[in-house]
Specification:
single chain, 351 residues, alpha/beta, QueA-like, Thrombin, subunit H, 2 domains, nine-stranded mixed sheet, 7 helices, 17 strands
């Protein structure tokens, strides 16, 4: 199976640069994977396709303002950090620019360098490069005054994907309304379409809602660089699921109801931890599961997702669920119908 099999033509103007005004008024393409039919709806119509007893599984990770701009302490040269994941304590794995200027031992100052208090200079946030990691990232130790997350909220920027060039006016539009646990470098974007009001209507219909937490890494945007799909080395991401949520999923499974994942991140957690009967249990760990056509789903029955990049691992995942030919047909129709693509774009429901 070749990576090029998952390519499609996408006009640049269809890549959504800003979120739609109302979250649940984005468009929704509904794919029936059994009958190979396509419907065009609005996202709030998702309610019509959910049935009492279904279990909707969502990822409640929260994006941190992980993009930091600073200066080298010795030269004043401008540099950029993107926090990827906390290794331990105040030590993080970070993507840096420009890499050639940020060797081990280099110190960087953030937050406009200094804050003046009582005629003294006080560092707000400082970092030292400890080590260059495989792949070019850096191991970095931070020093700061106060609470790290509060400093990030003050001086950090949302780490928008590289295909978005507009500035985000409201930080919370790159968060789901149910985001809870901080740790992601990218949003689980299928969840961006939900409002609190829509979720309440879903609960009132008798649909169970369960949570998983998977901290999305920047690897989600990395292209597949091999031509043979099976040779791709999948990135790893940290996740956990609580016992109460596992029980909701297992109950729905036992009673013959559908497990519907909100997003590929929720899907990957479920398929990582499920046994052959599709049952799950409280688990914490890392997953590098790579789902592509030929994969047999153990837990998942249906998926709410966005439209994904050509030749990406995510378009391979949805192709595994709905069939490659059907997905490529649907993407072609989405382009013809001028759907909005990627993170701030429209949604797809594969049922």
């Amino acid at each position: 199976m070749k990576v090029s099999d998952f390519n499609y033509d996408l006009p640049k103007e269809l890549i959504a640069q800003v979120p739609i005004k109302n979250r649940d008024e984005s468009r929704l393409m509904v794919l029936d994977k059994n009958n190979n039919t396509i419907e065009h709806k609005t996202f709030k119509n998702i309610l019509e396709y959910l049935e009492p007893g279904d279990c909707l599984v969502r990822n409640n990770t929260k994006v941190i303002p992980a993009r930091l701009y600073g200066i080298k302490e010795d030269t004043g040269a401008h540099v950029e950090f993107l926090l990827l994941k906390r290794i331990e304590g105040d030590i993080w794995e970070v993507m840096v620019k420009p890499g050639r200027k940020l060797m081990p031992g280099t110190k960087v100052i953030f937050g406009e360098g200094v804050l003046e208090q009582s005629n003294t200079q006080k560092i707000l946030l400082k970092a030292e490069i400890l080590e260059q990691l495989e792949g070019g990232n850096r191991k970095v130790k931070f020093e700061y005054n106060g609470i790290f997350n509060e400093i990030l909220n003050e001086i950090g920027l949302m780490p928008l994907p590289p295909y978005i060039h507009e500035k985000l006016k409201e930080k919370d539009r790159y968060q789901t309304v149910y985001a809870m646990y901080e740790g992601s470098a990218a949003a689980p974007t299928a969840g961006l379409h939900f409002t609190n009001e829509l979720l309440e209507k879903i609960k009132q219909k008798g649909v169970e809602i369960a949570n998983v937490t998977l901290h999305v890494g920047i690897g989600t945007f990395r292209p597949v660089k091999v031509e043979n799909v099976e040779e791709h080395d999948m990135h790893s991401e940290h996740f956990y699921i609580k016992q109460e949520d596992a029980e909701k999923i297992n109950k729905a499974k036992r009673e013959g109801h559908r497990i519907i994942a909100v997003g590929t991140t929720s899907c990957r957690v479920l398929e990582t931890i499920a046994n052959e009967k599709g049952e799950v249990k409280q688990t914490e760990g890392d997953t590098n599961i790579f789902i592509y056509p030929g994969y047999k789903f153990k837990c998942l029955d249906a998926l709410i997702t966005n439209f994904h990049l050509p030749e990406s691992t995510l378009i391979m995942l949805v192709s595994a669920l709905a069939g490659k030919d059907f997905i490529m047909k649907a993407y072609k129709e989405a382009v013809e119908q001028k759907y909005r693509f990627f993170s701030f774009g429209d949604a797809m429901f594969i049922k």
